[in-house]
Write a structure and sequence with these properties.
two-stranded antiparallel sheet
Length: 412
């Protein structure tokens, strides 16, 4: 298959894919991969296969094609192709919750500087790295990466990237419980979709609606949460987007749990768990198991809650997800307090505080914890964040966290 024919077949596949004929598109692209003698064409078709498998939640296949793409990029001896292929490798590992590998591949991308295309990809690299740091609950570095990605988006007038970063920032602030910002950023993403997204994939709209639904639920606005989640789920079903379907089912279950309707919540958790397991989203599975444990606690089935917590703990330890561990210790503390098992209670209280210290989840000005309840937070330029009220009271005398770090042994 020659260069012109390769291009035609790739375009044919794209047309089929955009018409929701995904399996037909995949067959066309696989034929190109088998028959084309044009390395640049093969590189492009591998990019199409990587994107399609990502959206279907076939992350192991995504990773397999990303590895082949790196070999093709090396054959082409082009730094732009190599940067793009390493970014796809980073994204594949991010989806499979291999966060340390994601960070390592992102750093490789950032070290391959020099060309215009590489510089344009830096925003996407920063976003992927931020998501990985967030998966590891390294909040300062995650925020630093998201802010870099946002700067790249603004400098390159890349509204799609800005939309994706806003969704990640929504997730970031949901995790540290500043629900005002958790809602603000996905609302901003939804505005970008409305203003600029006429020719965009509907996944951007679905993504922003999902993150809005999560924030609305946290704020107790359950009807709004249900409306946004239903819209997101509708698009996810139309496009066969399995990862988003799993997240929406989790959100539906959480909404029903917030209404204390555990009988309706349980089947939705089960459906979400089934898809999360199938696609390999271990971070999502931790959230599902946390929700299931809370349902058992509502029903006062404490031993069943502990079973779910034990499974979630194994996953969180395997991923290095410290916030997940903190939440699990918090639930165990409540359970063992009710059961009056004081030795176990003390163990979990100690482990909870160790997690808080490790993640620096406390305000460096007042010393109170961050992420325990809904609070307005503000980040300084160094990406350390504090209670907004503390910053307003204290003024801007520099970052106390940075001052503390600077006098630690090894920094002097």
């Amino acid at each position: 298959m020659g260069q012109d024919q390769t291009k035609q077949q790739i375009e044919k596949g794209l047309h089929l894919y955009q018409s929701n004929q995904t399996e037909k598109a995949l067959r066309v692209w696989m034929r190109v991969l088998e028959k084309s003698a044009d390395p640049a064409g093969r590189f492009r078709v591998l990019g199409c296969l990587i994107t399609a498998h990502a959206e279907m939640g076939r992350y192991k296949d995504m990773l397999k094609f990303a590895v082949v793409q790196i070999d093709t990029a090396r054959e082409l001896e082009d730094p732009d192709f190599l940067t793009e292929s390493y970014l796809n490798l980073a994204r594949s590992n991010e989806k499979l919750c291999e966060f340390q590998k994601t960070i390592s591949y992102c750093k490789t991308c950032l070290n391959m500087q020099g060309t215009t295309v590489s510089l344009q990809l830096n925003g996407q690299v920063s976003l992927s790295m931020g998501n990985a740091f967030l998966g590891l609950s390294i909040f300062q570095k995650a925020l630093e990466c998201f802010e870099k990605a946002l700067r790249y988006a603004h400098n390159n007038d890349d509204k799609m990237l800005e939309c994706r970063v806003c969704c990640s920032l929504g997730n970031f602030y949901t995790q540290i419980k500043d629900y005002e910002k958790a809602l603000f950023f996905p609302c901003k993403a939804a505005e970008l979709v409305n203003d600029y997204g006429k020719g965009w994939s509907l996944k951007y709209r679905a993504m922003s609606q999902y993150h809005m639904a999560v924030a609305y639920r946290k704020l107790g606005r359950l009807a709004d949460a249900m409306d946004c989640c239903e819209e997101s789920m509708k698009i996810a079903l139309q496009h066969g987007d399995r990862p988003l379907q799993a997240l929406c089912l989790l959100c539906f279950a959480d909404i029903h749990r917030s209404r204390r309707d555990v009988q309706t919540a349980f089947p939705r958790y089960d459906s979400s768990m089934s898809i999360m397991t199938e696609i390999g989203n271990r971070l999502g599975l931790i959230q599902v198991l946390l929700g299931v444990a809370k349902c058992w606690m509502i029903q006062k089935e404490l031993d069943k809650a502990l079973e779910s917590i034990e499974k979630a703990q194994e996953l969180a330890e395997g991923l290095g997800n410290k916030l997940g561990l903190l939440k699990l210790h918090c639930l165990c503390e409540r359970i063992y307090r009710t059961k009056e098992q004081h030795r176990e209670l003390r163990d979990h209280v100690v482990k909870f505080h160790e997690c808080v210290e490790e993640m620096e989840l406390y305000c460096g000005m007042c010393g109170e914890s961050i992420g325990e309840k809904n609070n307005q937070l503000q980040a300084l330029p160094c990406s350390h964040f504090f209670h907004l009220k503390c910053l307003q009271t204290d003024g801007t005398r520099g970052c106390p966290n940075c001052r503390r770090l600077s006098v630690k042994p090894g920094y002097v």
